[in-house]
Specification:
It is a single chain. The chain has about 425 residues and is α/β, with parallel strands linked by helices. It folds into 2 domains: about 120 residues, Nuclear Transport Factor 2, Chain: A (Roll), CATH 3.10.450; about 280 residues, von Willebrand factor, type A domain (Rossmann fold), CATH 3.40.50. The strands form 5 sheets. A 6-stranded mixed β-sheet has the order 12-5-4-13-14-15, sandwiched between helices. Strands 1-2-3 form a 3-stranded antiparallel β-sheet. β8 and β9 form a beta hairpin. α2 runs antiparallel to α3, α5 runs antiparallel to α6 and α5 runs parallel beside α10.
């Protein structure tokens, strides 16, 4: 065989030999493959950095809203940037300069836009040194107007297990929190509605056109021959007790109509709702008056949650019987009700004996709760040891707004939590 033939065969064999192709191809593909993996790793780091930035900027927005009335724009901007730098991860903090802070003192908003660069690691081989992340947040500084009705069970069962003492302290704690949260006159106003089977009003209201005077009371002698006397309530004899309105007005808010069936029946007080029961205090920001009214509460009488809830709604409505409330359409107005009871419904104007649970009274309470929530009032409910848990849970605006209390000592922390939630500055994304 000639040398030329041998060379030709060798070249042919080399051309057909593929034993090293896989290693060669892997080597060629390794660089872009590492780049893809690096990009995935770095984008994951950027995603984590963005979450940290979101949390820091939300926190800064709340802080800014809290301090906006105390600081100038320049001071507030400096505090926001310092806050962000203190709360960012080290690798993001080093690439963060300053946030854009927009303060609108007319609309009372603070808007923060922040950008940062996350240094890359493996992705640098592809020429990408940094990945940009950004976040924004906006808050107001607590100038929602708040109207809050405290609808509080004052029945005899509240005397057990220290419940009334705990309720008083919890109510006073809540009032203090709301007072401290107030930044403008009348920004936060509270009403107090103690209830049993009836509510008690100040007797100075006896000339109010929305009261009617047709309720009767029958008393019988205790000796033979037995004689009974029926008496109709009069303005002179009235001690402030008011019973349920005629059905179906008993589960709705009144409007001061002169129609007799829609009016509020002035009534006799009795053992189910004595005249010594604490009186309703309409919406007010007189913190001393609120404190004094809480301190007059004492446990006595039987339970009619419906009348408490409806009179709580009456204090939140601008129409009669009380007119202190603002219309629901008022900008930035939030209306709330905290309804607390420690027992079952036992008696209203028509049903129940004052001691055993009454499903008929429960049905009226359900209707009242639904009507109240339909007006836009946010309802919190609290069950203290006893009572219809399902009824109260369904009465709340959300299941998370229903609280179970198993010991009186839990009342104050719950009231503080609710007060904090109601009064806190909220983000307005």
């Amino acid at each position: 065989m000639s040398k030329f033939g041998s060379l030709r065969d060798m070249i042919g064999r080399f051309r057909k030999d593929q034993s090293g192709n896989i290693l060669m191809l892997f080597g060629l593909a390794l660089v872009p493959l590492m780049g893809v993996v690096g990009v995935a790793v770095d984008y994951s780091r950027a995603s984590n950095a963005r979450q940290s930035l979101n949390a820091a900027i939300d926190s800064a927005a709340l802080m800014a809203a809290r301090d906006a009335q105390k600081l100038t724009d320049a001071q507030l901007t400096a505090r926001v940037n310092a806050w962000l730098k203190d709360n960012l991860p080290a690798d993001v903090k080093s690439e963060f300069t300053d946030a854009q802070v927009s303060i609108d003192r007319t609309a009372r908003t603070v808007k923060i836009v922040a950008n940062a660069q996350v240094p890359t690691t493996i992705a640098r081989v592809l020429g990408t040194d940094n990945l940009a992340v950004s976040s924004s947040s906006q808050s107001t500084w607590g100038l929602n107007t708040i109207e809050l009705a405290l609808v509080l069970d004052n029945t005899g069962s509240m005397s057990a297990n220290g419940k009334m003492a705990a309720l008083k302290q919890a109510s006073l704690d809540l009032i203090q929190i709301m007072k401290d949260a107030t930044q403008e006159t009348d920004q936060i106003r509270i009403s107090i509605v103690p209830f049993s089977t009836r509510v008690v009003l100040d007797t100075s209201l006896k000339t109010a056109p929305w009261l009617r005077w047709d309720q009767t009371q029958t008393t019988c002698s205790s000796y033979w021959p037995y004689t009974c006397t029926t008496t109709t309530i009069t303005k002179a004899a009235w001690q402030g007790c008011v019973t349920d309105r005629d059905k179906s007005y008993d589960v709705t808010d009144g409007d001061g109509s002169p129609n007799n069936s829609m009016m509020y029946p002035a009534d006799f007080c009795d053992t189910y709702s004595p005249s010594t029961q604490a009186k309703i205090l309409p919406l007010t920001s007189d913190w001393s008056a609120l404190t004094a009214r809480v301190n007059t509460m004492q446990p006595t009488g039987a339970t009619n949650i419906t009348i408490g809830a409806i009179w709580g709604m009456a204090t939140l409505s601008p129409s009669d019987p009380f007119t202190e409330a603002k219309p629901a359409s008022t900008p930035r107005l939030k209306k709330y009700m905290i309804l607390l009871t420690d027992g079952d419904n036992t008696k209203n104007r028509w049903d129940g004996n004052g001691s055993a649970s009454s499903s008929a009274v429960d049905a009226r309470t359900t209707l009242a709760c639904n009507n109240i929530k339909a007006t836009g009032v946010t309802v919190y409910t609290i069950r203290v040891m006893d009572g219809n848990a399902t009824l109260l849970r369904n009465c709340a605006s959300d299941p998370a707004m229903y609280y179970e209390v198993t010991a009186a000592s839990q009342l104050s922390p719950i009231f503080k939590s609710i007060a904090g939630e109601i009064s806190q500055v909220r983000l307005t994304q």
